[in-house]
Amino acid sequence: MASPAVIRCYAFTFALSVFLLITPSISIYCDEDDCYDLLGVSQNANTSEIKKSYYKLSLKYHPDKNPDPESKKLFVKVANAYEILKDDETRAQYDYAIEHPEEVFYNTARYYKAYYGHKTDPRAVLVGLLLILSGFQYVNQWTRYNQALEMVKKTPAYKNKLRALELERSGGVSNKKKNNKMDKKVHEDLSKELDLQINGAEKPSVWGLIGVRLVLLPYTLSKLLLWHGCWFWRYKVKKAPYSWEDASYLTKQSLGAPADAWRNTDDATKDDLVQRQLWVKSNMESYVSEMRRESKRRR
């Protein structure tokens, strides 16, 4: 059995822990003071009485009215107590903290939510977050694009295109400077004329940023709904034949071809694929079988 001294030690430790936990849940409002006592009113005082007492004390302790150095501290405490008690919500939270001091974490969370949470406009937070994300996205896209551009510039195909462009600009007379190496300034000028299409690392555009897309989301959704409505009316209700652009879109979707790959496909191949009407299941199955047979013949 524990000795009386050990029991007293445990009791003191427990009491101290309870004091350290419970006290902050009340003191966070008016420090170590009671908000009602600071204003000189009872806990049952109405809003009018609280307001009247505050105006009276604020005149008494205002630094311009009272030269006493302690008056400034009292003035700040009185103003803080009034801010808490003048609002029905924060006053109810304070009264709850007085009646339930054991709920330290709950009371503390409610205090900080009331005094700090509402001061930050969620719309400002959302806009700031979107700006930060869009900034990171834009920098990342430019980094990827520049890295891909440097890699492409080291390939023989790019150097050949650059050389051909140089010959075209110079009228077929090649630059002989420095072992036929192109002058740096000429190299940069000609590089700007080459329109490089790099798959997977397209030149960044502000229209692709997440912030811009979110702002334009209502417009995008409206446009999408209008497009689907027109499609349904034209091809489902009126049974009109597909235009070449719409048939091309259906063909691309049926093949599962990426937008870049389809855009770089030559017109003759596109026409052939569109005429096959691959969006029809039977036609697609026939096309797949034909491709398989052709692949086996090549082997």
Automatic annotation (TrEMBL):
Organism: Spinacia oleracea
Cellular compartments per GO CC: endoplasmic reticulum membrane
InterPro entries named in the record: DnaJ_domain, DnaJ_domain_CS, DNAJC25-like, J_dom_sf
Topology in the lipid bilayer: Multi-pass membrane protein
J domain sequence ranges: 34-98
Keywords: Chaperone, Endoplasmic reticulum, Glycoprotein, Membrane, Signal, Transmembrane, Transmembrane helix
UniProt record, GO biological process: protein folding
Highest classification ranks of the organism: Eukaryota, Viridiplantae, Streptophyta, Embryophyta, Tracheophyta
Cross-referenced SUPFAM superfamilies: Chaperone J-domain
Compartments in which it is found: Endoplasmic reticulum membrane
Transmembrane annotation, as ranges: none
Annotated coiled-coil segments of the chain: none
PROSITE patterns from the UniProt entry: DNAJ_1 (PS00636), DNAJ_2 (PS50076)
The keyword Chloroplast is annotated on this UniProt entry: no
Signal peptide: 1-27
Pfam family, one: DnaJ
Protein name as it appears in the record: Chaperone protein dnaJ 50
Function field: May play a role in protein folding in the endoplasmic reticulum.
